C-alpha cells in the first residue's frame, strides 16, 4: 500500500495535495471543509495589510465547449481582519492537528514582517509562505511580484523573516520574470526552507467585443490580472524543472500551476515537486476533486511500485536535457494504420499547410499516404489525428549511432554554411513554390451549389 | 398494442407528434459544434445534394458567428431550416460523417443547420436581397421547394417573379407532405415568410394553372415559365373495393393530417400498403393518432423495401407491425372498409408471384395506399412541345433545367420523378441559373 504522506521541508501532511493560497482558503469554514473532504494541507489566503476589492474579479478562457481552460483574477489578498483569520487558523489546527496549515503572508516593513510571522506562528501555522508573486494590485504598492522580480529585495525580506521564523518558510515565486532560478537562488541565499511556484502570470484573458473592455469588467473598464488554470501547466512545469535542476537552488519545491487531476500532480512531482498546490480546479469543481486525485495518485504509485512520494520526486529530471544533448541520429517517420483511419484527412492538410508536404491523397480512397522520403518525423500528423493509435511514429534508424550537437561541436564537426553537406537544409525536400497555386480551390465550392453541370443523384423516395 | 391515445386537443397532438429533431439550445449547439473535426474536402459536403459547406458553418456556430453560419447554409440551399429537419441526414451528411467509421455518434449536422437558420429567421435580419432589375419576368408554377427556391434565385439575379400556387399555403411537400414529427407548419411557413420578405417575389395562392387558356396567358405575360409542379395524387391500384369509404391515399392522408391535426379521423385498425418512406410515415402517423393496430403490408421482403432503415425503425418504434410478401387483392367491406384480402407472394427471379390458395383477410377499418404518386401528365399535355420520358418525367437539360419547349424550365419531382426536398431545392437553384442564361440571351 503506497504511503501518500509527505514531509515537506519539515511540514507534515497526510498527502501531497494542498490548496493554494487563494479564495478557497479564505476562511476556516472552507479549510475545514476541504480537510474533511480529504485535502492534505492548505495555504491560507494571504494575510497582510488592509485592502479593498472590486467586482467583478475573475475572467475565464473558454475553449470551444470547455469552460475555464484558463482563468484569471484581479482579486487582492485577504480582505478579512487579521485577527479573524488567526483565530480561525487556530481553530482549524485544533481540529486537524496532522494536516498542514500554512500561512501566506504579504506585508512591507521589517517590523510588519516580524509581527505577522510571530502572530501566525502563535496561531499554530505549520509553515509560512511568503507571497512574492501577486502580479496585480499589490505590486503597485511595492509588494507581491514587485518583490518577486527583484532578487535582492526578495533575499532581504526572506532574511527579515528568518530572523523570527520558528516554522519552515516557503518562498512563493512569480513567473513574471525571465529566469525563475534567479529569485529561487535569492530565496535560498536568504535562508528560506523551500520554494513554491508558480504564482499567477500577468495576463489579459480576453476582451469584451461589445464593451471594448478587458475581462473581468469593472464598470466598463478592466486591468491585467493573474493567469492560472489548466492552460498554465506547461509554463509551470518548465519553471519547476528549472528550479529543480539548478545545482544552486537545492530546496524542496511545492509545485503549483494547472493541476486539475492526479496526472497533472504526478507530472509536477516527476519534475521535482514534493508537494503540489491546487486552486483553479477547486474553484471550478469544488473540494470533491480531491477524491479522484488521491485515488489516481495511489493507483499510479501501486502500478509503478513507488512506496512513497519521495521515490517519485524528480524521476523525469535526468531525461530533461538541453537541445544540444539530444541524439541527432534518432529517426522516426509517420505511419498510418489504414484499418483505423476514418478519412478526415486532417493529417493531410496539417502536413501540407503546416509542415513538410509529406502526405499525399490518392484516387479512390480517403486514407492518406505518407511519403516516407519527405517525412521529417515532426509528429504534427499524429498530433492532429483524432483516432487513437492511427498515426504512429515509427523508428527508422538502427539505434547504433548516437551523436549530439554538443559532441559534434566538440569534435569540430559542425557545418558553418548552408552549402555544407552536413547542413540540414540540403536534405530537406520542398516542392516548387508554383506547385501551390490552385491547390486551395476545393473540389467543393464553399457555399455554392457544388456542381451546376450535374446535380448528383440522391436516394429516391421509393414507392410502388 | 396502442401506445398513443387518440389526440383530442392541439396540445395532445403536439405531444404525440413531438419533433424528432427538436431545436438545439446554445449550449447544445456549442457542445455539438465543438466535436466537428473540420475534415479536409469533407465527406459530409460531398454527401449533401446542395453542397453546403458544412464544416464551415459548424465552425461559424462554434465561434459565435451564427449569422455567418446561416449565410453559408442559405447560400447553398434556400430551404436551409426545413432541410435540417426533413432531410434524411442519416443517409446523407450525417451518414457520411467520418465519426461513423470510429463507431462514434456522427455530428448532428441537421440540427445544427436548423439551429443557425432558425436563429437567423428569428432575428428577421435579411441576408440577401433582390438583384438589379433586368426587366424580365418569370412565372413559377408551384410554390413547393423547387418553385420557391427558383423564385429566390431568380429574384437574386434581378428578374421579376410571380409564383402560382394551387393550394392556400407555400412550401409544398414541406407543409403538406412531410410527417408532422419532422417539422411543424409554423416553422415551415416562417421560413417561407422569411424568404419572401427578403426576395420580394409574389405568390398567387389558390391559383391553379389548369387549362390551355391559363397556360397561354402565362406565355403571353412572361418571358419564361418554371414548372415546379411536383407529383400528382396517389395512383390507383385498380383493386376491387378501392373506392370504399376508409380507403385513402397516403399523400392525401398526410396532407389532411398536416392541416387539421387532431381533427383527422383515423381508424382503429389501419393497414398501410407500400414499402417506401411515405408508407413508413403514414404507418407511424396512424399509430401516433392512436390507432390500436397498424399493419404495414409490403409485397416483397423487408430487405427489399425502398424505405430507409431508420424510417422503418421509427415506425416499428411506435408499434407498427410489418407484414411482408403479401399483395392486396381486394378491399373488402360493405360500403365501408372492413378488411384487406391479401395473397401471399413469392419472389422468383425478381418477379413477385402470388402463391395460389394462400389468400387471407386482415380485418381493418382504414386502408392507406402509399403506393406511389401519379405524374401530372394531363396538365403537362397542355404545354406545346413539352416532352416526357417513358416514366412521365419531364425531359430536361441537366445543366440548365431547360425543357424541350425552350421557354419552359423544370426541376424537382416533376423532373426527377420524386426525391428529397434538398434535391428539389438544389435542382431549382441550378435551373434558375439556366433561366437567367436564357433570359439574358433574349434580344
Brief characterization of the structure:
The complex is a heterodimer of chains A (464) and B (443). Chain A is built from 14 helices and 20 strands. Chain A is α/β, with parallel strands linked by helices.
Give your account of this protein's structure:
Chain B: InterPro entries: 4Fe4S_Fe-S-bd, DPD_II, FAD/NAD-bd_sf, FAD/NAD-binding_dom, Helical_ferredxn. Chain B: Residues 27-60 form the 4Fe-4S ferredoxin-type domain. The complex is a heterodimer of chains A (464) and B (443). By secondary structure, chain A is of the alpha/beta class. Chain A has three domains: 6-319, Alpha-Beta Barrel (TIM Barrel), CATH 3.20.20.70; 323-430, Alpha-Beta Plaits; 431-464, no CATH class. In chain A, strand 12 (207-208) and strand 13 (213-214) form a beta hairpin. The longest helix of chain A has 16 residues, at 289-304. In chain A, 29% of the residues lie in helices and 19% in strands. Chain A is globular, with a radius of gyration of 27 Å. Chain B is α/β, with parallel strands linked by helices and 443 residues long. Chain B has three domains: 21-123, Alpha-helical ferredoxin (Fumarate Reductase Iron-sulfur Protein, Chain B, domain 2), CATH 1.10.1060.10; 137-232 and 374-441, FAD/NAD(P)-binding domain; 247-369, FAD/NAD(P)-binding domain. Chain B has helices spanning 10-16, 26-34, 43-47, 54-62, 66-76, 80-86, 93-96, 109-123, 145-156, 173-176, 185-199, 212-221, 250-260, 277-288, 309-317, 377-380, 413-416, 421-441; strands spanning 137-141, 160-164, 202-204, 224-227, 247-249, 269-273, 293-298, 321-324, 326-334, 336-348, 351-354, 360-363, 366-369, 408-410. A five-stranded parallel beta sheet of chain B has the order 3-2-1-4-14, sandwiched between helices. A five-stranded parallel beta sheet of chain B has the order 5-13-6-7-8. In chain B, strands 9, 10, 11 and 12 form a four-stranded antiparallel beta sheet that branches. In chain B, strand 9 and strand 10 (336-348) form a beta hairpin. Chain B is globular, with a radius of gyration of 23 Å. The interface between A and B is large, with 36 and 60 residues.
